[in-house]
Specification:
The complex is a heterotetramer of chains A (308), B (314), C (582) and D (578).
Chain A lengths: L1 H5 L21 H11 L1 H21 L35 H37 L1 H16 L2 H12 L2 H29 L2 H8 L4 H9 L4 H25 L9 H11 L6 H28 L8
Chain B lengths: L1 H12 L1 H19 L4 H5 L5 H11 L5 H14 L12 H36 L4 H14 L3 H15 L14 H33 L2 H8 L4 H22 L2 H4 L4 H6 L5 H10 L3 H29 L7
Helix pairs in contact in B: 2-5, 2-15, 6-7, 6-9, 7-9, 8-9, 9-11, 10-11, 11-15, 14-15
Chain C lengths: L9 E6 L14 H10 L4 E3 L8 E3 L7 E2 L5 E5 L22 H12 L8 H4 L6 H7 L14 E5 L2 E5 L7 H4 L10 H7 L13 E3 L8 E6 L15 H5 L15 E6 L3 H9 L5 E3 L5 H4 L8 H4 L4 E6 L2 E7 L4 H4 L2 H10 L2 H9 L4 E2 L24 H10 L11 E6 L2 H17 L3 E6 L1 H9 L5 E7 L6 H4 L19 H11 L5 H16 L3 E3 L1 E2 L1 E6 L3 E2 L15 E2 L1 H10 L6 H7 L1
Parallel strand pairs in C: 1-10, 15-16, 15-17
Antiparallel strand pairs in C: 2-3, 4-5, 5-7, 6-7, 8-9, 9-10, 11-20, 12-20, 13-17, 13-18, 14-19, 21-22
Classes of the chains: A mainly alpha (308), B mainly alpha (314), C alpha+beta (582), D alpha/beta (578).
Bound molecules: adenosine-5'-triphosphate (2 copies) and magnesium ion (2 copies).
Chain lengths: 308, 314, 582, 578
């Protein structure tokens, strides 16, 4: 199954003549990367994501946009009038562009940290449930059925509500609500792989559970985790906006969510630049993550290869 | 037959552990982690005595276990009592809220699902061609804009400036509600078209490369028949998986839409309850959603057997 | 869109929060109170046109006679006033209101089962009422048991006996908590009473209140003889035509349609669309609507829209928690912070410069407000602030721990906290902003966990006592004094002042008290907010009141005018142009 | 005689990421009316693409017919509009596909699926079409056709599904029927039935038939002409008789030679590589290899002690039911099996799909826990060992799985795959030593040591099966179970792997249990043969005995099913000669 789809070596299949040219470096990851590289738009997405990550990092380190809190002009100055605040200013006369840049930090970290919370839980529980089956599986399935039977937005709001303030809450709330999907996926995939012959082959050479799970099965589901993460990022970034709207978002530093929330009132007075700035910034990175997610799926998930 | 009855009974019995779990979870969230609601309920002039009195009345002085049992009891009897904040009967609050939520979400859901499926089939037909690329890119672009932006812009332009729709509000009864929910429904559809088309397209493409499609082509069937008859029927399973589990959550309507369009639905009720520490209401909504979720997954399983003869309920 | 019906006189109002229920004893918030007051009435009410606010009899025939010791109040009740027709009465015909209805209604406030949010008004005030309450704690109260201080002497005579002097008592009789409810309705509807209001008011509901986002009222056909007033009208009132209706029988409209819309932007759109007759102006729409001299922009004038600007009876402030040793005996630190807080600019940013910068805790419009007083610490002076901070031992903020500031999560309060943070940063003080949901903030304040927090207080009645008590030690959290300020001298002076009879003497005393304590900076003073209300040309007789209880009966709607305006498309003009140019 | 179909200079290209691949190169052949043309060639040689080109069903993109003509009844199909082509598909030209399991639409009744083309092309009403479908199902030999028409594909066995496919294809009585490996996925017994059916139908309807396979033996019975394809080209084209009698091209020779025949018992099989070098040039055949030996079954108590003893082995799978999903019954996959196997010997295990072969094999290694019974290996009762001891035991007993694609972890390099068992069983003290052994293993199984750093997907099927064998050998076992280890391979590759297994047995004195459903393969490699049915051994004896003198009907049925590998006329001639 796997081989058939990944190699186009139909002509070379003959035993006698099979002489695949010796490649310097060849692994599924490398192949996937090569495939990804061919896709111009995907490469552009990688670059955009990379750029955002860089900006986020620089702003976290205080190298760029550290002066977002500075008053640089009059309140609600219109954009494109002054180079110091090319995208205009907000209510306090702070530069909108600087806030947008600073907001990158929140957006990227929300995606990153919530993934860092969701992935270990989702992969851990999913793998254990799928691999061991039986009672353990029942308990884990019960657990995530319970969690998923509560509407996500309710769970998100309650967690945010109870933890209260700020960015940590956003991380935790998003992390804790998004592991379920991943867990279910990983469980199914591990169950499938568990019965694959290569795992039984590992059994036959005397490999224990830990080895079978960690060394054999998990590497074969990593692509799912990667695809999922790229999508989790964009979900997280979008959720931050909603949380901000409900008033459970970030405080004390600018985020795209709070900027859009501000715009709710500003729009009627004709102040559209905060909304535009944040929306465009968000649009670009969410778009990039979406495209990247698709491209990764095509590149890493051989099942869908050639079907884009 | 017998085994499917067994299956259905088993699945319904599964409600018990799940409900116990849901109760434990919300109990943990609202009774253990969240603090004392009495100060808020009594308002700005609250006194210590009154707070103590109210705590007693609300049963907050009982042991945690006894309180948990109360939650469980209400979950299994569906008797949620009265709201702490508004003192209203919760069952009637939910009834009143469910109607607007459902009149908004069900039409929106049905229209958006059908539209997206049809679009997806069309896109699948033109796979690899310009139109496919165009719709795909449009979908992703549509998904990348925050829903808040759509609401703000649509309400301002379509309802206010062009006067095509009511700006906000709601009236019970047909056809009056239609005046109020049309715009929110349109926004809902616009919001869901992007992700839905994309998802259904993937599903349909998954099917299009199956061997049976080749067989159908070899029979001389036209592409239209193949797509709408052979492929779509097979794609129903993943489509059902994706859509049916959304249904119970339709109950909550769309939170943002409800509050911007002043639709008195359950979504708005949830936010209000949250903002006034009205735990009985939150518990009721959560428990009902959980029950709906389990029942709908069961319905989903039954639907599977209808669309796919290979699936058996066991 | 739907067709409008212009045959009936319908008043369209918008409310910004959910209305919980219509039971007077549980009128927790201003929104519910306003709705309750459409249906129910009390002994007293506020004069419609007169300012400063003044009480006048409502269901009472006249103002009460007060005994010499100031403890006994005797009321005569208007005879012949009928409750709304309702199935709780025999034959469904409204019964006549009697004195014992008030006895019953006020006992309901004390009934612990009802957990009335208005109990603080009467707590410890009426002879025997607390005892009655305690006796039936957790039990079914016996309403027939007589309470010494609360008696119906005969069918139309009602007598209150207080435990001590309490000049504010009369105000509580104009508050919805004490409004008259018929025991028949309470008994019949039980827990559903809150959805089935039966009162004597000018309006009645058509069907039980069902938690929907609209409430509809119709005119009470049997409404008592009540006429449009002319007393106390100011020059402007007369100019605005507010006295034209003098002597007309109330109410003037046939129907009221109340819409609940929680989003400010939605409310404003509804108003602009002509869907509602009046609206407050969202902060961010100010420039669009109001010119710098507080008049209306031409664009809106052209649409026939009127603007009503009135100072509201309230104050915003940032409280220090005096439980915290950092603030307890550290006047200089608080003074420094107060000086570093740029209230004037905050006023521009958040209240469009329309707020009145607070000098003491007492707002204008009530006795105790001194327009000439300037608080030396309620102004922006960074130099002086730095000096004071130095004197307090925290040169440039060194040695000062990070101070946490609690706020709610609405857009505006978030912006305000950012602004405060910025101001304090200039002084060298680090502020950590914690956003909370409203329940969380309340809980933190009531459990004394909040170090600093922003609040606003809206007067319950027009007496400075209601503001000064925010600093009264015994009112500490969970009471209204969330900052837990406790100054023995202030407490003592306050006790004497509040028991004085209203008058210039008491006002002077209040003023002195307020000014002295203001310089101790128990709070960072914000502004007294101004209310801006827009109304359409077809709405007549509107006058703003902080205590807008039952005033809808004075409003009139000119349906012909409304039809004309709506059909001419006048309201939509310009808007299109404006958005096009954006 | 007029030619029904003429293919002239057909070229088909595929646009792949690696560049343009020519899948069919300058192919020309004819299919006369009423005759069967066999198209033979190894996997990937372009057979399917050729047939799809006739139907104009080549997936586009990436495929494109770059030049050539396909003339059907005097009309060039390549010049037709899609609309016109649709009228021909299913009506004049019908096709049966390789995979009966997936080629039917799973959600429609088979009756409906057959009716569909009748309604489309013959304009029948649904009722007429349904009746005709039932009739067709009867014709293709489906029992109780009325009821069967109401069934869904999953309710039928593989053979039945293929019959449905055939019924569907012949529904409109096409003039040309294309069969793309219609039997490859089927059991030998069922394969036999299907081929017989095709033969009868062709006789009855007098249609032209293009029959595609990679196994020359399969079409021996049925084809009039044979076209041999090798690497996108036609290398030989002749009548069936001539092809079998006097094959010209070395590849054809290899194909004929590599199928083990029941009546011959060579020491090893000839393969394509014995006839042809890598560049495709003919080489002289080393005649010593074809030496015919009569396998003599002799047991030397000294040299061949009993290595494995199995007593009354049962494996039961629970069947769940009831509200709480409790076990209500058991499915007895292995139901009381006992046998002894001597060292250095090979036990062949045959039986139909689902009879319990795999389950038995795995339970011997305790990869599936036996429910009951004893397995004694080298004097140790392994059914009593604990986990740890069992793990150590695994270095002595190994298994090679059926599917070379899925039994290698796609995310591990070959060297990791080979070194993992060594690490687990402490073979080789250092990494270097293990690497050395891995290299040695690669050479032993006929692969190159440089290929160690590659991933499984970079190998062909046969190579992968060699890697699996190398992995099994890595722990130096004495006993190996080969579970259908060659069933997934092309006949020519299968022969190479069988040779390898024999060589290794000789060199290391290995003991095998060889599981297969193909009696000829089992016969070739085994000393003893056990025939299994419904979880039990129905017959067990020396290989020759089972073949020459089958005792049970079941065994006879299995034997009959094996393709003779020679056209009938040729067989008759041969036997006549003798
Ligand atoms: N969709 C495709 N994309 C790219 N290459 C293809 C595609 N289909 C076929 N090929 C190439 O065409 C060649 C011939 O394939 P074809 O399917 O005709 O082989 P075959 O002889 O039928 O083999 P098998 O016996 O395995 O069915 C192969 O080398 C294969 O790589
Ligand atoms: N884990 C299992 N649970 C339940 N039944 C099983 C399980 N594994 C196998 N079976 C059943 O046991 C029977 C024997 O299966 P087994 O795989 O041993 O057959 P086989 O002879 O190897 O067939 P094939 O030739 O198709 O590989 C089958 O009917 C199968 O359905
Ligand atoms: Mg093929
Ligand atoms: Mg098997």
């Amino acid at each position: 199954m796997f081989g058939q789809t990944t190699s186009a070596d139909g002509i070379l299949v003959n035993e006698v003549t099979a002489q695949a040219p010796v490649k310097k470096k060849s692994s599924l990851w490398y192949d996937a990367w090569k495939r990804l590289k061919r896709d111009k738009i995907a490469v552009a997405s990688v670059i955009i994501v990379g750029l955002y990550a860089l900006i986020g990092l620089l702003s976290a380190l205080g190298i760029v946009a550290a002066d977002w809190n500075q008053e640089v002009g009059p309140s609600y100055a219109a954009p494109f009038e002054n180079w110091d605040y090319i995208l205009g200013t907000d209510i306090f006369g702070r530069s909108v562009i600087t806030k947008v840049i600073h907001g990158t930090q929140i957006a990227m970290s929300v995606g990153l940290v919530s993934s860092l919370i969701a992935i270990p839980i989702g992969v851990g529980l999913g793998a254990i449930a799928g691999y061991f089956g039986g009672k353990v599986d029942e308990v884990i399935v019960w657990f995530y059925t319970t969690v998923s039977s509560i509407p996500g937005i309710m769970l998100l709001m309650s967690i945010a509500f109870i933890l209260g303030k700020g960015i940590t809450t956003v991380y935790i709330a998003l992390g804790l609500t998004s592991w379920v999907g991943l867990c279910r996926l990983i469980r199914g995939e591990v169950m499938k792989h568990k019965n694959r012959e290569y795992v039984q082959a590992a059994d036959a050479i005397g490999a224990g559970h830990t080895r079978k799970l960690l060394k054999h099965i998990l590497p074969n589901v990593t692509h799912i985790v990667i695809i999922n993460t790229s999508l989790q990022f964009q979900v997280a970034i979008k959720s931050e906006v909603i949380l901000s709207y409900i008033g459970l978002g970030v405080s004390g530093q600018p985020s795209w969510g709070t900027m859009i929330d501000d715009a709710k009132l500003e729009l009627a007075r004709g102040v559209w630049w905060q909304l535009a700035g944040a929306t465009v910034a968000m649009f670009l990175v969410v778009l990039a993550f979406n495209i990247l997610g698709d491209a990764l799926r095509d590149a890493l998930d051989p099942k869908l290869k050639g079907k884009s | 037959m017998n085994s499917s009855v067994n299956y259905i009974i088993r699945r319904l019995l599964y409600l018990i552990p799940v409900l116990l779990g849901v109760c434990a979870l919300i109990f943990l969230l609202f009774n253990v982690v969240a603090g004392d609601p009495t100060a808020l309920l009594l308002g700005k002039h609250a006194s210590v005595e009154q707070m103590a009195e109210l705590r007693e009345q609300l049963g907050l002085n009982k042991s945690l276990f006894a309180q948990y049992l109360d939650v469980v009891k209400s979950a299994f009897t569906f008797d949620f009592g009265r709201s702490w904040s508004t003192k209203q009967q919760i069952s009637s609050m939910i009834m009143q809220g469910a109607i607007p939520s459902l009149t908004l979400s069900i039409p929106a859901f049905i229209i958006s699902t059908f539209t997206s499926i049809i679009f997806a089939v069309i896109v699948a037909y033109y796979r690899g061609k310009g139109i496919d690329l165009f719709i795909r890119v449009t979908c992703i672009a549509m998904m990348s804009i925050s829903s808040l932006v759509y609401i703000l812009v649509f309400q301002n332009v379509l309802a206010f400036q062009l006067g095509l729709f009511e700006i906000s509000g709601y009236e019970y009864g047909f056809p009056n509600f239609l005046y109020y929910v049309s715009l929110p429904i349109i926004i809902w559809i616009v919001l869901s078209l992007g992700p839905d088309i994309r998802f259904y397209r993937t599903i349909i493409l998954d099917e299009i490369y199956q061997d049976y499609v080749r067989t159908a082509r070899a029979k001389g069937l036209s592409e239209k028949v193949i797509l709408f008859k052979h492929v779509l029927r097979n794609a129903m399973i993943p489509i059902l998986t994706y859509t049916v589990v959304q249904l119970p959550f339709l109950l909550l309507g769309a939170l943002l839409l409800e509050s911007f369009f002043a639709i008195p639905g359950l979504g708005g009720m949830t936010i209000t309850a949250l903002n006034s520490s009205d735990f009985p209401v939150l518990k009721a909504i959560t428990i009902l959603s959980a029950v709906a979720y389990i029942i709908f997954t069961l319905i989903q399983d039954i639907l599977y057997t209808l669309v796919d003869p290979r699936v058996k309920l066991q | 869109t739907k067709k409008q019906n212009f045959d009936e006189k319908v008043l369209n109002v918008v409310v910004s929060a959910k209305v919980k229920g219509l039971d007077p004893v549980n009128a927790g918030d201003t929104y519910s109170s306003a709705e309750i007051a459409r249906v129910y009435e009390g002994l007293l009410e506020y004069e419609y046109l007169k300012r400063p606010y003044e009480l006048k009899p409502s269901l009472a025939q006249a103002m009460p006679t007060v005994s010499d010791d100031g403890l006994t109040y005797t009321f005569k009740i208007k005879p012949g006033v009928k409750f709304h027709d309702n199935k709780c009465f025999p034959n469904g015909k409204g019964r006549e209101l009697v004195a014992s209805d008030f006895v019953y209604s006020i006992k309901r406030m004390a009934d612990s089962k009802n957990n009335s949010t208005g109990w603080w008004l009467l707590d410890g005030r009426i002879k025997g009422l607390n005892e009655w309450k305690d006796k039936y704690k957790g039990k079914d109260a016996n309403y027939s048991e007589e309470v010494e201080g609360l008696k119906a002497l005969d069918k139309y005579t009602l007598q209150f006996t207080l435990t001590s002097k309490y000049p504010q008592f009369l105000y509580s009789l104009a508050m919805v908590y004490t409004f008259a409810v018929p025991h028949e309705a309470v008994e019949m509807y039980g827990e559903e009473f809150l959805n089935n209001p039966v009162g004597t008011g000018a309006f009645q509901i058509t069907k039980p209140y069902a938690q929907q986002n609209t409430i509809e009222y119709v005119k009470n056909p049997n409404y008592r003889d009540d006429f449009y007033p002319s007393e106390g009208a100011s020059e402007e009132d007369i100019a605005a035509g507010l006295t034209k209706y003098a002597g007309k029988k109330l109410p003037l409209v046939d129907k009221i349609k109340v819409q609940i819309q929680t989003e400010a932007s939605t409310r404003f759109l509804s108003f602009q669309d002509g869907n509602v007759d009046l609206s407050e102006i969202p902060k961010d729409n100010f420039d669009q609507v109001v010119t710098p001299d507080q008049g209306l922009t031409d664009e809106y004038k052209a649409k026939g829209i009127d603007l009503e600007v009135t100072p509201d009876l309230d104050i915003t402030y940032i409280a220090f928690n005096h439980d915290d040793p950092l603030f307890k005996n550290n006047v200089k630190l608080k003074q420094a912070m107060s000086l570093a807080y740029n209230g004037a600019e905050a006023n521009t940013l958040f209240y469009n410069g329309r707020g009145i910068l607070a000098q003491t805790i007492i707002p204008p419009g009530i006795g105790g407000f001194d327009p000439n007083y300037k608080n030396p610490y309620a102004k922006f002076d960074l130099e002086k602030a730095k000096k004071l901070l130095d004197e307090a031992g925290y040169k440039n903020g060194e040695g000062l721990p990070e101070i946490s500031y609690e706020t709610t999560a609405t857009t505006v309060s978030r912006q305000m906290s950012e602004y405060f943070q910025k101001n304090m940063a200039e002084l060298g003080i680090k502020i950590k902003v914690n956003t909370n949901t409203w329940p969380q903030l309340t809980q933190k304040v009531k459990s004394r966990q909040a170090q600093m927090f922003g609040m606003a207080w809206l007067g319950d009645y027009p007496d400075a006592e209601n503001f000064l008590q925010l600093l009264y030690g015994p009112n500490s959290a969970p009471g209204p004094n969330g900052g837990n300020y406790n100054d023995a001298q202030f407490n003592k002076d306050f006790d004497t002042a509040k028991n004085m009879q209203p008058g210039p003497e008491r006002a002077a005393k209040y003023a002195k008290l307020a000014q002295r304590v203001a310089e101790e900076v128990p709070l960072l003073l914000g502004v007294h907010r101004t209310s801006f209300v827009l109304k359409h040309s077809w709405l007549k007789n509107y006058k703003f009141s902080t205590f807008n209880h039952g005033h809808a009966k004075y409003y009139d709607v000119d349906m012909k005018k409304k039809k004309e305006v709506l059909e001419s498309g006048l309201l939509k003009k310009d808007v299109e142009k404006k958005t096009a140019s954006n | 005689m007029s030619d029904l179909l003429q293919i002239k200079n057909l070229n088909v290209d595929f646009n792949t990421p690696e560049g343009i691949v020519r899948a069919v190169n300058n192919v020309s052949f004819d299919v006369p009316l009423g005759k069967t043309v066999g198209l033979v060639g190894e996997s990937g040689s372009g057979k399917s693409v050729t047939s799809l080109a006739v139907m104009q069903l080549i997936p586009n993109p990436p495929g494109i017919i770059s030049s050539g003509e396909i003339i059907f009844e005097g009309q060039d199909l390549l010049k037709l509009q899609e609309e016109e082509m649709r009228k021909i598909r299913g009506n004049d030209i019908a096709m049966i596909f390789q995979e009966p399991m997936t080629s039917l639409n799973p959600v429609f009744k088979v009756g409906d699926q057959i009716s569909e083309s009748l309604m489309l092309h013959k304009g029948m009403s649904p009722k007429e079409a349904w009746e005709k479908s039932v009739e067709l199902l009867d014709q293709v030999g489906i029992p109780n056709p009325k009821a069967s028409a109401q069934k869904y594909p999953h309710e039928m066995s593989g053979g039945q599904k293929q019959r449905v496919m055939i019924a569907m294809a012949i529904a409109c009585e096409p003039k040309l029927l294309i069969c793309d490996e219609p039997t490859t996925a089927l059991d030998v017994t069922i394969q036999r039935q299907v081929i017989d059916l095709m033969f009868d139908l062709q006789d009855k309807y007098k249609m032209g038939m293009l029959f595609i396979t990679h196994d020359l033996g399969v079409i021996a019975d049925i084809a009039d002409d044979v076209v041999v394809m090798y690497r996108s080209n036609i290398v030989e084209q002749n009548t069936a008789k001539n092809i079998f009698m006097a094959p010209q091209h070395p590849y054809t020779k290899g194909l004929i030679a590599c199928r083990p025949a029941l009546d011959k018992n060579p020491e090893r099989l000839l393969t394509v590589s014995d006839f042809m070098d890598e560049a495709g040039n003919e080489i002289a055949v080393d005649q010593t290899k074809t030496k015919k030996v009569d396998k003599v079954f002799k047991v030397d108590e000294e040299k061949n002690p009993v290595l494995l003893e199995v007593n009354d082995l049962h494996v039961h799978f629970p069947i769940k039911g009831g509200i709480f999903g409790r076990t209500v019954d058991h499915f007895k996959a292995v139901n009381g099996v006992s046998f002894k196997l001597r060292k250095g010997m090979t036990l062949g295990l045959v039986g139909e799909s689902g009879c319990g072969k795999t389950t038995l094999g795995r339970s011997l290694l305790r990869l599936i826990e036996p429910t009951k019974g004893q397995v004694i290996y080298d004097g140790v009762e392994i059914t009593k060992l604990d986990k740890k001891q069992m793990r150590d035991m695994r270095s002595k007993m190994q298994i090679i799985f059926q599917d070379p694609y899925s039994s290698l972890n796609p995310r591990m390099t070959v060297s990791e795959i080979l070194m993992e068992p060594m690490v687990l069983h402490n073979i080789g003290a250092t990494k270097e030593e293990r690497e050395k052994k891995a290299r040695w293993l690669m050479e032993k199984v006929g692969l190159k040591a440089e290929q160690l750093s590659r991933y499984p997907h970079e190998f062909s099927g046969g190579q992968r099966q060699r890697i699996c064998i190398a992995r099994a050998l890595a722990v130096s076992p004495d006993f190996i179970i080969c579970d259908e280890s060659v069933s997934a391979l092309d006949v020519s590759v299968q022969a190479q792997v069988l040779n390898l297994l024999l060589d290794l047995q000789e060199e290391f004195g290995l003991t095998y249990i060889f599981i297969s459903h193909d009696l000829s393969v089992v016969n070739f490699i085994s000393d003893e043969v056990a025939v299994m049915n419904s979880g039990q051994f129905v017959e067990m004896d020396r290989a020759n005995e089972v073949y020459l003198r089958p005792k049970m009907d079941y065994t006879k049925k299995l034997l009959e099913a094996i393709p003779k590998g020679m056209p009938k006329e040729l067989l008759a001639e041969q036997s006549g000669l003798q």
